[in-house]
Amino acid sequence: MSTTPPSTPGKFKPEKSPPYFYSYNRPLRSYPSFTKLTLYCLLFIFLVFFIYRVSQPSRAGRRNSLPGGRYWEKKVLKSATPKAEPGITVLVTGAAGFVGTHVSLALKRRGDGVLGLDNFNKYYATSLKRARQQILERSGVFIVEGDINDTELLKKLFETVFITHVMHLAAQAGVRYAMQNPRSYVDSNIAGFVNLLEVCKSVNPQPVIVWASSSSVYGLNSKVPFSEKDRTDQPASLYAATKKAGEAIAHTYNHIYGLSITGLRFFTVYGPWGRPDMAYFFFTKNIMKGKEIGIFETADRKSVARDFTYIDDIVKGCLAALDTAKKSTGSGGKKRGEAQFRLYNLGNTSPVPVAKLVSILEKVLKVKAKKKVLPLPRNGDVEFTHANISLAQRDLGYKPTVDLETGIKKFVRWYLSYHSSSRKKTSS
Ligand SMILES: O=C(O)[C@H]1O[C@H](OP(=O)(O)OP(=O)(O)OC[C@H]2O[C@@H](n3ccc(=O)[nH]c3=O)[C@H](O)[C@@H]2O)[C@H](O)[C@@H](O)[C@H]1O
Q1: Which atom of ligand 1 is nearest to the CA of 305?
Q2: What is the pLDDT of residues 153-173, one digit of tens each?
Q3: Catalytic option among 20, 123, 177, 239
Q4: What are 44-56's pLDDT values in tens digits?
Q5: Boundaries of each NAD-dependent epimerase/dehydratase domain copy (predicted)?
Q6: How big is the chain by its Cα radius of gyration, in Å?
Q7: How confident is the model at residue 40 (pLDDT cuts 50, 70, 90)?
Q8: From the CB of 295, is ligand 1 less than 6 Å away?
Q9: Residue 341 pLDDT greater than 60, yes or no
Q10: How far apart are CA 264 and CA 347, in angstroms?
Q11: In 110-150, which ranges are continuous DSSP H helix?
């Protein structure tokens, strides 16, 4: 907004007639001058007030966390400054997402500087993302509202604070939704990732990058358990294909620019503050409402199975990946030596059939589900996943400890309290 003087400066030209303070003997002439002075005074006061308002962020601006101004910068710096030196400062993309929230909280809790970035898209209820944002704010994590495709914004973040690490979790998630909105997968998981890497490769010093790939890259691979050495050239969904593309893109940026990059293949992550588009979440909702749920089974009539991994285990894996990462080697957009490139499975190593997930939910919720067995639709789902985690165990000390029943109990406890408090809020 402009703070330039009024566009009609002619109005301020002195009058040809003597100014009002000489004209006490001509009262009729003095009245219009006096009125003008009052008007100018009012205009001046209005202008001063206007400039003051423009320089202060509005309440809505604060809420939206839009970049710009001293207030924004102060918030960014406060959030991103580690508690003690030497600490790391992590830019967490997708910070209002499920994994992003948990990782940001864990980093902040141990004293790291954390800066969140999230575009609060409408893939699922933004109210849940806003609720996560509130939790983060209370813990001192500020989320900048913006998109990973916004180059200028990313540059501004790197200019404002010294970001040592990027935890890249912003993505278009969901396997089945890719049939409905393929474009969003390309925009976030490919274009957005490339944009982020472009900015990261140019800053000096370059940050370390840890990012979320997916178990879905194993696609139609039937060799179990899935090892990082197994083939990943048969994706079954566009989501999987974009994550696989991300792995190839990451390799390119590591190879050309010396960025240190670690990809983590998450296996069906679940837990409190989870994603409503995932089966364990909407099964809970539908069982509670007495609605039917569809349980997919394979052509040979076996229940599909997933290596469900509890969020706390995933968070430990993410932090270990950040802590064990070596520095990037490039500077000024040029590689100065070989940089680290890693890829790890983060799973639970104990696949559970979806039918078993449902019986755990029934037990924990104490409600019988209305089940319908359906053939596995051909919309991106794979029949099973099973992680071999020996590499992550060796390099990251990764050791999942939460079994599905324990994790589901924690999820259900959160689900019930979250929904009862949201109901209270809407009814009050
Ligand atoms: O590991 C990953 O990389 C991915 O994990 C997750 O995908 P999935 O493992 O497919 O989880 P999710 O949809 O919860 O389905 C769970 C099971 O329920 C079955 N399923 C599903 C729906 C239904 O109506 N019935 C059913 O049986 C279904 O066939 C499946 O067997 C993330 O969503 C994804 O973003 C990505 O991160």
Answers
A1: 31
A2: 999 999 999 999 999 999 999
A3: 239
A4: 888 877 766 655 5
A5: 90-326
A6: 28
A7: confident
A8: yes
A9: yes
A10: 10
A11: 126-138
